[in-house]
Amino acid sequence: MRRDSSFWLARFGMALFAVVFAAGLVGCSSLPDEELYPVDISLETIETNMQKALDPDGRYAKAKSYFQRQTSVTENWLEENVGESITDVWFLAPDKLKMVTRVDNRPQSGVFIDGERGWLYNYVDERESELSEERMKLVKTLILIANPGSSLSKVFDHISISGCVMEEEDYYRLSCRVNDADESAPALNIYIDKDDFLIKVYRIGDSMSKIVRYGMHEGVRIPVEIQTVKGGDTTRVHVVDYQLDVPISESEFKPPYIYR
């Protein structure tokens, strides 16, 4: 399997972190029906075509770190804004991640992963909580997804490929699971356009995200506008800054209280 075909996984790894560290995977929502049918295509073929579309020069695959800034606006089913925020994401290969969310330009919450341990940090109350062993298992899977040197086969133990018609659109659907995941946990379903081999939708539990628009940054194509529906809420995310190989110290991946 091609190592440089993992670019698209990383972009969705960051979005999945937002799902994991939000309200969880429980709720009520009405997601569109799917019509599945068998297809004759290999995972290697899908990834090769996706790599050509997303990372043609292998720029992302060679990156050792990256920074991304995204704005988020959440609306409830009454179409009222219930939250506007800016989230900065730093990643340092192979397994370090930091996410800080600001509201009105003030830090509100953070996620810190140093490779072995993880913490949630509340900037308002200056309080932290360490992630449980079970949560860290999921986090490490997502970290692996975010690693430029990773691939589908390194992340997931089981991947099934089907054709899928959803809302009159035709996709390849990849249903992905890991062996040591909670058996009750939903699979990650990834929906790939059959013509351009770009991911258009992904779905986990009762949360579904649609890629509204892609953009080119430093020679790679990334999702720059994403709409996520979960329960009665809709979150619209716009990527406003993206940089590869940014300098960042390993000390940045521990919560602030450690240095007080």
Cα gyration radius (Å): 18 Å
The succession of helices and strands, N to C, reads HEHEEEEEEHHEEEEEEE
The number of strands is 14
Major pleated sheet: 14 strands, antiparallel
Percent helix, as a range, is: 10-25%
Overall geometry:
globular
Overall mean pLDDT stands at 81
Q: List the total number of helices.
A: 4
End-to-end distance: 45 Å
Secondary structure category: alpha+beta
Strand content: 35-45%
Uncertain runs are: 1-13, 22-28
Q: Strand arrangement, largest sheet?
A: 1-8-9-10-11-12-13-14-2-3-4-5-6-7
Summarize the structure.
With 260 residues, the protein is an alpha+beta fold.
Descriptive notes:
- The chain has 260 residues and is of the alpha+beta class.
- It contains 4 helices and 14 strands.
- It has helices at 7-20, 43-54, 133-146, 152-155, and strands spanning 35-37, 65-75, 81-92, 96-103, 106-113, 118-122, 127-130, 158-166, 169-177, 188-193, 199-204, 207-217, 220-230, 233-244.
- The chain has a 14-stranded antiparallel beta sheet, covered by helices on one side.
- A hairpin with a 2-residue loop joins strand 13 (220-230) and strand 14 (233-244).
- Helix 1 runs antiparallel to helix 3 (133-146).
- The longest helix is centred in the N-terminal third of the chain and has 14 residues, at 7-20.
